[in-house]
Design a protein that fits this description.
The chain is mainly alpha-helical and 99 residues long. The chain has helices at residues 3-18, 22-51, 65-68, 73-98. It has 4 helices and no strands. It is elongated, with a radius of gyration of 16 Å. The relative contact order is 0.20.
Length: 99
């Protein structure tokens, strides 16, 4: 999910923290960190695969589909689960604020 989970998690943590819900804010911050970590690991796997290609120029997203396929499924699942949990935290923050 890329930076979406990281940015939404950080924003949700800030929102919950300033709303007085410190436990939920810490959970949202932890989920944002997990999302950031898993995104970095996925990027590192793709970068290492791309370095073996002769035409690799070192760009942030200079990957082919084959190189992206070398990312293990478990880390993609971790990133997806963290992002879904961040969206749930954001919904909870909205419910706490406006509900």
């Amino acid at each position: 999910m890329g930076c979406f989970g990281v940015l939404l998690g950080a924003g949700t943590a800030w929102w919950l923290w300033h709303g007085g819900n410190t436990v939920a804010a810490c959970i949202a911050a932890a989920l944002a960190l997990i999302s950031f970590w898993s995104f970095g690991v996925m990027h590192n796997y793709a970068t290492e695969a791309a370095k073996r290609r002769s035409g690799y120029e070192g760009g942030f997203s200079d990957f082919t589909a084959r190189e992206v396929d070398e990312i293990p499924n478990w880390i993609g699942a971790v990133n997806l689960a963290a992002t879904i949990a961040v969206v749930a935290c954001a919904a909870y923050a909205g419910w706490q604020t406006f509900g």
